[in-house]
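Backbone description:
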Amino acid sequence: MIDRDIIQEGNDVLFLLDTKRTFLIKIKKGEKLHTHKGFIQNEDLIGKKYGEKVLSSLGIEFVALKPTIYDYIKKARRSTQILYPKDIALIVTYSNIGPGSRVVEAGTGSGALTCALAHYVKPNGRVYSYEVRGEFLTKARKNLKKANVSEYVELKNEDITSGISESGVDAVILDLATPWLVIERAYEALRGSGCIVSFSPTIEQVVKTVIELENNEFVGIVTIESIMRKMKIKEGATRPETLMRGHSGYITYARKAFKKNQAMI
């Protein structure tokens, strides 16, 4: 049995210098991680435990950590503006997904949210991700593979406003410019009590989306704006960080209710 706490060749390792400087690599014999603080021989890590400290060629201390889904998302190659972890966490929570869930997502973009969704539905769930631009799917496919979750995702180069092939899904998650055009399709695809979550940067998009949700028998409709700020912790000088990521978008959440007599058909 492979000890998951021991670093093996082919494993991913996150080298942490400090909270602002990290390096995510795959361990390969004969290769080095080059940094401004010296280099680290990959093979020197093989057999060590995750969490051990290692020294670079310049004697600078790094910590070898096992990457989390947050690390993969943060390091994802971007072709579009990706969602921030603060938004992704709320989307995952509101969608109520977990191991075994079947989820429809649109649009894929660079695949940051897709990575998170796949991480939570594995090992026997599935994410069906719709994206109209093929070049975005190429980038997303690489990010999914790097995050080790590609086997749980079906990428679809299709326009979701034209239809959703899947039915009886647990959640529909939308991150696209015109989510209101998908609401009726989402209703048909969802199982009873299923969740829909939509992310939009402007309130005008939210208004149109909420109106469509109300017109299609969705209930429990809630819209929030998530704002997060980091704190600078130092004895005698603790305060909020000078810079913060403020508004990124609005998250609208609702659930499918059957229309009168529909559940009996």
